């Protein structure tokens, strides 16, 4: 890390990656897709990233942990801090989508539980209820 004339820390890409807990390729990828800006290269060739870049990457990682995709995060960043109603709407949409995913996963879990019970009941060396069910579903979906 290096202290700049403006009294805030500037970092090389390696220091920035370590500081925010991502790898260098993640930072380069975020630059390519426009989530963060690439600083201009000075004469010595070492780009220095300001503290704001670290804060932005931290925002991105936190938003990802809440389930937002990088595309959705880019939209949130474009909306900005002063538009709470719009950000709240996006958060509500994400919450509803996660609720749908939870219901779908619970249904899958129940189906798997039923198949496992069938498998335990049958205890056959010649056929497996799980495989049979999956084959039957594939055949029905092709028809």
UniProtKB/TrEMBL annotation:
Record-linked SUPFAM superfamilies: Putative DNA-binding domain (SSF46955)
Classification via InterPro entries: DNA-bd_dom_put_sf, MerR, MerR-type_HTH_dom, MerR_fam, Tscrpt_reg_MerR_DNA-bd
Transcription regulation listed as a keyword: yes
Keywords attached to this entry: DNA-binding, Mercuric resistance, Mercury, Transcription, Transcription regulation
Name of one Pfam family that matches: MerR
Any single biological process term in GO: response to mercury ion
PROSITE patterns named among the record's database cross-references: HTH_MERR_1 (PS00552), HTH_MERR_2 (PS50937)
UniProt GO MF annotations: DNA binding; DNA-binding transcription factor activity; mercury ion binding
Domain HTH merR-type: residue ranges: 10-79
Function description: Mediates the mercuric-dependent induction of mercury resistance operon. In the absence of mercury MerR represses transcription by binding tightly to the mer operator region; when mercury is present the dimeric complex binds a single ion and becomes a potent transcriptional activator, while remaining bound to the mer site.
PANTHER family, A to Z: HEAVY METAL-DEPENDENT TRANSCRIPTIONAL REGULATOR HI_0293-RELATED, REDOX-CYCLING DRUG-SENSING TRANSCRIPTIONAL ACTIVATOR SOXR
Protein's name according to its UniProt entry: Mercuric resistance operon regulatory protein
Protein species of origin: hydrothermal vent metagenome
Source organism phylogeny: unclassified sequences, metagenomes, ecological metagenomes
